Amino acid sequence: MTKIGLEIHCQLTKLASKLFCSCKAEYRNLEPNSNICPVCAGLPGSLPLLNKKAVEKAAMISLALGCKIPGKIGFFRKNYFYPDLPKNFQITQYNAYGPTSIGSDGKMEIEGKEIRIRRIQLEEDPGRLVYEGTSEKTMITLVDYNRAGTPLVEIVTEPDFETPKQVRKFLNVLADLVENIGVSDPYLEGAMRVDGNISEGDGNRVEIKNVGSFSDIEKALLFEITRQQSLVERGIEVQAETRHWDEARRITVSSRSKEEEQDYRYLPEADIPIVLIGNESLDKISTQMPESIVARKERYVKKYGMPAQVADVLSSDRFYSDLFDKSHNEKNAKEVSNIITTDLMGFADTREKKLELKITSKHISDLADSILENKLTRNSGKLALQEMVKTGKALTDVISSLDLGHVSDAGSIEKIIDEVFKEEEKAVAEAKQNPDTINYLVGKVMKKTKGKADPATTLDILRKKLSV
Amino acid sequence: MNLGISATEFVSQAKEGALSVEEFVAKTLDRIKKIDEKIHAFITVDSQNALDKAKAIDKKIKSKEKTGICFGMPISLKDNICTAGLKTTCASKMLENFVAPYDATVTSRLKSEDAIILGKVNLDEFAMGSTTEFSYFGPTKNPWNPEYVPGGSSGGSGASVAALECLASLGSDTGGSVRSPASFCSVVGLKPTYGLISRYGLVSYANSIEQIGPVAKTVEDVAFLLNIISGHDVHDNTTVNHGHVDYVKDIKAGVSGKKIGIISQMIGDGIDKEVASATTSAISKLQDLGAECIPVSLDAVNHSVAAYYTIASAEASSNLSRYDNLRYGFDFSTEGYEFKAFISKARSNFGPEVTRRMLLGAFVLSAGYYGKYYLKAQKVRTMIKAQLDEAFKKVDYLISPTMPILPFKVGEKIDDPLKLYLTDINTVTANLSGIPAISVPFSMSSSGLPIGIQLFANSFQEKELLQAAHALQETSKLPEMSL
Amino acid sequence: MVDRKEIEHLGDLVKVELKEPEKYIKQVEQILNYFDSLDKVDFHSDDILRTEVAAENLRDDVHEPCGDSLIEHLKKDQNNFIRAPKMV
Q1: pTM, entire model
Q2: A49: contact with C, CB 8 A cutoff
Q3: A81 touches chain B (CB under 8 A)
């Protein structure tokens, strides 16, 4: 029986400042050591100042994962020496002397399996190391403290996962969740990092660290299961150790014991008072929590009669569900949801593309209305959408510039059908025999009208003409 | 020009234009030049800036411009308090070249009231010690007799004030480090309540107990400084918003009708006979002033030294981790070294006392020992505070000799760390519990060595404490500094 | 209880190279024995003294750049990095 547990580090990227000082929380693409101050650079005499919103956002994650939040939270120092650690200790949370971290004893259900959340803690990210030259030969590492002090939430699960697939699903759901509640943008580089631990049966536990992506952790775990099982088959004991994922060779490799059993000499961080989280604060945070993905999906299904599949896709994407909420009204909700899930999401599926979208809720509602009023066919609608995404022009402009008007009068359609009959004699004969192939002819009509012909009318007239 | 006037007296004269700030500061700098080689109180003297500032302040006073309430008062700062542009060495090789890019909050508050920072004074390395003999730059000597220690760790503060090298100083007190030099140098030294004074810019040694404290010749001077440096600071989350208190106002209120508890555990068998009789005398003087003095027993005091050194060592071992000489420190190239080897070599430049405490701290925090030492020491703190709270239900103040012994010779106790630790028996109680305590110079021993008396009050009762201390100081007339 | 190996281990924990570890053995042991007196204390309470602050009174989440270019005051290289030896 496979047992897998996870340790996930999630940056609170939606904060303006770092966890213990007023430097920017967003450190990416800045000149080296340009986002530092006496506190995050570890200068003598500096003191940490806890960020109020970081506590709130961490509490929101705890609530979303069903954790208990204590009335008093405290911070500890984890003492060890490393070049990326400006104070040579990390300010973090620690529950060995009582539950003082921001969350504990939560759970999440993944495909029917309950995954218990052991604890959630707030802590600071260390700086970044850049290696001069190739890391084999160089003796020097270059340190950039821009990231030092960035707020992190560490989420530790019990070893409840049974398969790497479950792990992958959990991570995707977790990423959607933190994005949905507005605490983090998990797709930013380095914003969500995962370490795993895995054991087979009664065997020793192996830690897997430094995994780059969600798909990598799945691969690493799959490899580990195979590696461990094969060792067991050969009667060799699985060593309790730390391994890292070698992307190039697609295997896990034993890490040299720089991670040997460390004595972190935890002690309370006396510069940060115990923080009192009253019931009032918690209530305020609860009310500020956005609608959960699950609740949103239910709302979409119940209120708008959205098919479960569509509701699922739409509700788990914060960007698009917001867009849906702004774009729809009672009448066009279903159409809007279709436009978004069937077409728009296909055009803009990455973070960058979403940011570049020139489309607004008005574009979408106009489009939905036009289709419902038969001013535009769905096919034309798709073309119009593409154009609006690129240029941001209003729907009416796009319709005229691309000549997408709906052709619905029977006369014009009949004329086109006659032309098609002349060009496609063989298909016409076949359609008379086998009515199912009529769609080929419909397609030809669409092509000739550049998708503007009303499909229902076209089909109607075709059938009449073929006498089928 | 009399350099022996009090800071309060200086302010009143300077305000009226009755003395020239520039002349006073120049004379003070001359004195430092003349005598500091005998006592070695200063690490850095900032002469030119001091004179320039003094000139500017004289101008402001003359042209009746608004001037800060210090009116150019020359002050020294313990060299573990950050001063922008001026070295902050903590008397350690590890920070030999360190110039802070920012002022400690207390520094900027003093500067904005036109105090003149004359320079930085000596201390035991990183404030760990009771005699200032553990300074990388050599010991400070007691101005009353340079063969003797000035107390510590703020020995430079005590000595510079006593030797008339400045009108006041700021030190830091973790286990008695302001009160011990105040007692040994015959000046006044206050350890305020934990949380009253911002620690932003104070280089951390034991951050759950230390406080910056003013040192001056009179209690009124200390109150004056307290008005400037105390109060909530956004840069330090452990400071308390206590509202605005004027510590100078009503300082002459006296002790009539007050009750004072004599802590039995602090006048036990171990104390020097002359110290004991000085204490008895002080008690009797206070009774003459209308106070009722009764014995009080605080048995938690017996565990206070063990608890203090456990906590202080533990916190020191963590607070000093940042000194890896990568970002700041002293000249030592990383070329050719591996990380762990480099920092271990760089950090071998800590002195023996600091090293000793870091080793002890590592031990008490290491896996499995937390419950046995550190946690128990923390519970002793709670116990002490509880016993003090009980006592303060019956009395307004507590009293004891500041130090159980007379000042001793330089080098006398340096090889016996534990013996030295035990001399803190009377002072650590205030640090562990957070309550304020002040050392008032009371008398001289038959050998001409200072004896100080310590008064305590409950948390945030500095105003009342200073009133009692003022009353006590008025009862004694001490010899003038001969150096 | 305290031998040379222990002292060296402690020195390694705090990353201080001890030139003469033997010098510390006796003193550290003596002081630790003194700390053992804490075992005999009869505690009536498990409470620990700590400062407390309400979550509402914490620092607001506002970006304020550090006035000065701090890196100019530190031991930097020509590209504004801090050079550290690699950890092996």
Answers
A1: 0.89
A2: yes
A3: yes
